[in-house]
Design a protein that fits this description.
Layout lengths: L4 H4 L5 H59 L2
C-alpha cells in the first residue's frame, strides 16, 4: 500500500506544500546540498583549469616548433 505525496498534502493549505516543506528540507539537508554543489563546482573549476593549461602548453609547443623550423630555413 503506497501513499502518494498528493494524498498526504491533500487537505493542507498551499503554503505548507510550497513553503514549509521545502524550508524544512533545506534546513535538514542544507549542508549536504551545499557540499554536493561545492564538489561539483570544484570539479568543474579543475576541469576548466586543466583544459586551459593543456591548451596553453599545446599553443606554446606549436609556436616554438614553427619558430625553430623557420630558423632552419635560412
Amino acid at each position: 500500500m503506497t501513499v502518494s505525496v498528493k494524498e498526504i498534502t491533500a487537505g493542507l493549505p498551499w503554503w505548507v506544500t510550497w513553503v514549509l516543506i521545502p524550508a524544512i528540507v533545506l534546513v535538514v539537508f542544507g549542508s549536504m546540498i551545499m557540499w554536493v554543489v561545492g564538489v561539483i563546482i570544484g570539479l568543474l573549476f579543475k576541469v576548466l583549469l586543466a583544459a586551459a593549461l593543456i591548451a596553453g602548453a599545446i599553443f606554446l609547443v606549436r609556436k616554438f616548433m614553427t619558430a625553430s623550423s623557420s630558423k632552419n630555413d635560412w
